[in-house]
Structures are given as structure tokens and as C-alpha cells.
Amino acid sequence: MKSKKPLILVTNDDGITAPGVRTLIEVMSEIGDVIVVAPDKPQSAMGHAITINNTLYLNKVSKEDAAIAEYSCSGTPVDCVKLAVNEILKRKPDLCVSGINHGSNSSINVIYSGTMSAAVEAGIEGIPAIGFSLLDYDWNADFESIRKFVKKITLETLANGLAKGVILNVNFPKLKENQIKGIKICRQANALWVEKFDKRQTPFGKDYYWLSGEFVNHDQGEDTDEWALQNGYISIVPVQFDLTAHHFKQQLNSWNLNE
Amino acid sequence: MKSKKPLILVTNDDGITAPGVRTLIEVMSEIGDVIVVAPDKPQSAMGHAITINNTLYLNKVSKEDAAIAEYSCSGTPVDCVKLAVNEILKRKPDLCVSGINHGSNSSINVIYSGTMSAAVEAGIEGIPAIGFSLLDYDWNADFESIRKFVKKITLETLANGLAKGVILNVNFPKLKENQIKGIKICRQANALWVEKFDKRQTPFGKDYYWLSGEFVNHDQGEDTDEWALQNGYISIVPVQFDLTAHHFKQQLNSWNLNE
Fold it and tell me: Where, in this chain's numbering, is a divalent metal cation bound (chains A, B) (predicted)?
């Protein structure tokens, strides 16, 4: 008896027309039945934002590639997952994949990332989930070089399963397929963005700012995602949404809070 | 020699005019020198969103209460912290407090919360930070009953310090001061929102959705924030932004990823 194909939900944060998500749809269609619910416009850096004070629109769009159905959504990446699971899909998907993001979501970027927040939302809802990102912000980034690895990681995830509450954050270096040294399991590097605001004036004399910044990594650990990516490896960080700093509870209990 | 007063950055996600932040400013002014940088409109459920494809405005507003200066910002709560630290404050603040939120940020709400994301952003930037939330969504919620506890927790935090990478998530039950049983150090309860989308039609016949949902807590642990709050206690969860699921790394290393 042949097993049924897995049902795979695909989303992203660069918008439904981005080359990264189109590549992901193609690869996933080789593995399972694909439903796409992705933002109708770029939603980068939206973090885990949801739309609670505004309406949400969902449009069935003409499917390209090999997806069973595609929908664009007016909301954030997390809204897409919520709408997909509750309004579109007839059963809980076997996997949710998000991306392939045009740009890095390694290290602290995971917390600002719409791509990863969509995957984390799926994880919260009990769906195994993976976020894929390529370290190239270019719209015409080379996704061909990483297709083979995206497929391999997805098949291994379906075969092995993920623990409850764990989501995979996969980042690819900007390298040709034959330059990639392999896949490393990593921890999130302790790095951050140091902001540099660009202060300008409107034509009407009012000050405004553009947020820009410089990524600074003081964490030289060879077990980090940054190290792996800088040394030619694909990084996989298992991510969780229990944010409790369990190691600090004991110290907090020694404070004089109840006197 | 008298020590200098601590410099305290105050922000929130309900907007600079919300009674919750006004109470927080009053309490913080009893402790230190207060600078306020808060959104010019409600920014609830914005998670860790930042503004990268749009301009940011900052307006110095006439200060009320006892703050040294107050600014409203057109961006998200995380934008407020970034602008405060990089464009407004002459030195790194000794503490950043966010809130008091009108509504719960316990359990999984921490991940959707603009209030907590602002505090987490401060933590990423190396500033000790606390998010305060009251389990009452009402604009006219009773913040008087919790003033004493907000002050106590803040003073203890300044006295004891926080570990690098740890932020406090403080939630208050909706109770009178004399009904509150005390303060408990907790872990984040494993709970989630189960969505119920309200599907409607525009006057022009187009479907749209309102996101709503029901909070479901299957975690009966007496060490959770949900348990504490339901049993009359203030909950404090230490929160971290290293999202690595360290416990799952070993299992991932057993997968056949590099064959």
C-alpha cells in the first residue's frame, strides 16, 4: 500500500512572487502536496506581528509551478499561517516551510524575521516547521545552488520528525553548490545589530529617520551559525518558543521580592 | 557622596497616551531620571517588528508627570528603543521598562507582544529590562493597585542586576492590592491561541477576515505564569533571546544530513 504524500504548507515574508518562495514551491512539489499562503507584498522584519486592529484579505491566485493551490494574504507572515491552518487547509499539514528568504536569518536575525516567525507560528500550532534563508538579499539570488540541500533537509525532517516545540532555522551561505562543505548543527550566535540612523529632512523641513545598521558578531564560537556560514557550511539551528531563561530562576528566587 | 540617580528609559506598545505608561512614568520618576520614547499610536501585537521600508518620525512632546523628556515615535515599540538608544539618550540607560500593558503578556503572548519585544530589544542592546503587563485590557484598568509592586520589582532589579541576555516578563492579576498574594518566579506556560476567524463581506461583496481566538492552556504546571496569575500571584518569568533549542542538537546530529 502506497503511503499518502505529505501535505506541505509553504509561506514566506518576501511576498508570493519572490524567486525564493517560487524555488521552495518547486522543491516541495517534488516531495508532497503543496498549498501556498504567502503575503501579497514584502513583509520582511515583521517579526511575530499579527493583525488585530485591521481586516485581512485572502485571494486565491492562479497557481504556477506545481502547487495544488496558492493564496495571497494582505497580512503578516504569521497571519498567513493562522489563516492557512484555520480557513484554508482541510487538515493539519504534515510540514510548514517558510522562505527561501532573500537574506540571512542567522544569529539574532531570527527574532526580527518574518520568515522564521511564520515557521515558529506553525511550531506553536503543533506543525513541524522549517525556515530557509539564503545569505543573499538580491532579488535574483542564486537559489539553484541550494535546491539539493533544501530537499535533503526537508526529507530528513519528514523522516525523523521534530520534537514538540522545536523549529529548524536553516541558513545557506552564498556559494555555488560544489563550494558548500556540508551541513552543521549549530547554536544561535550571540551577535547584534548596531544601529546607525540616517537622519534626513522632508521637503517641508521635518526631520525623519531611516533605520540602518551594522551587524556585529563578538561570538567566535565554532559551534555557532555565524561560524558555520562564514566557513562554507549550511547552518541548522533548532529553535524554540519557550523563551524562559530557566537558568536564571534560582537567582531570581533569592531576591527580596516578597518582603 | 550621594550616588547618581539611575537613567530609566520608558516605552510601551499601547501608545504614549495610554494610562498604563502614564502610571509607569510616575512610578519610575520616584526612582530615577526618566526619558520616555513611546509609539504615537497603539502598536499591540507587533511582536519584534522593525521599520525598514519606511521612514520614522520622532516628536518631542510636552512632558507631563515627572519625566525629563518625552518623545512620540511613528514606529513600532522596537523602533522606539532603537531610536532612544541611538538618537536621543546621551548614555546607555541603566534600565528600560516597557508597559504597563493593558492586557496579558503571560505564556505564549510574550512572543506576539510589542511591550515585551521592546524590553527584549533593550536586553539585546545590553540594557537591563523589564516588561510589565496587567491582565485587564480596559483603557481604564486599575493601575493603582499594582504601583507598589511595580516599584518593588524595579528597585530589586536595580539592586541585584540581571544576567546578560535575561529580561523580566512581569504580569499582574486583575486584583485589588490587598487581594494579591505575592510574587512568584515562573516558567512560561505551554499554552496557545486557537484561532477563530470571523469571516465577513465588505459592502462591495468581497470576503475579509477578523482574527480572533481563544486562549487554551493545557499546561497545568504549578511553576507556570498562568498558574500563578490564576491563583492570585504576580508572575515573573525570566526571558531570553537565545532561541536555540540546545536539547535537540544531539538528536539533529544523528540525522543523515551529510551523506
Answer: 13-14, 44, 101
A101 to chain B: which residues are within 8 Å by CB?
none
Q: Which of residues 136-175 of A touch B (CB under 8 A)?
A: 152-153, 156, 160, 162-163, 165-166
Domain ranges of chain B: 7-190+222-253
Helix (H, G, I), strand (E, B) or coil at A226: helix
Sheet strand arrangement including A69-73: A58-61, A69-73, A33-39, A7-11, A95-102, A129-134, A166-172, A233-240, A182-185
3.40.1210.10, 3.40.1190.10, 3.40.50.720, 3.30.190.20: CATH of A7-188+222-241: 3.40.1210.10
**Nearest residue, CB atoms, B56 vs list A42, A120, A211:** A211
Show which of residues 6-65 on chain B sit within 8 Å of chain A, judged by CB atoms.
42, 44-53, 55-58
pLDDT along chain B (259 residues), means of 10: 81 95 97 96 84 89 82 94 94 97 96 95 97 96 97 98 97 97 97 90 92 91 98 98 97 94
CATH, domain B7-190+222-253, list 3.40.50.920, 3.10.450.350, 3.40.1210.10, 3.40.50.300: 3.40.1210.10
Report ipTM (2 d.p.).
0.93
Out of A44, A108, A244, whose CB is closest to B187? Answer: A244
Burial of A179 (0-12, 13-18, 19+ CB in 10 A): exposed
| A2-11, A208-217, A232-241, B57-66: least confidently modelled range | B57-66
Q: Tell me the per-residue pLDDT of A36-91, one tens digit each, with 9 for 90 and over.
A: 999 999 888 788 888 888 899 999 998 766 888 999 999 999 999 999 999 999 99
Q: Which residues of A touch B253 (CB under 8 A)?
A: 185
3-state SS, residue A250: helix
pLDDT digits (tens, 9 = 90+) for B172-199: 999 999 999 999 999 999 999 998 899 9
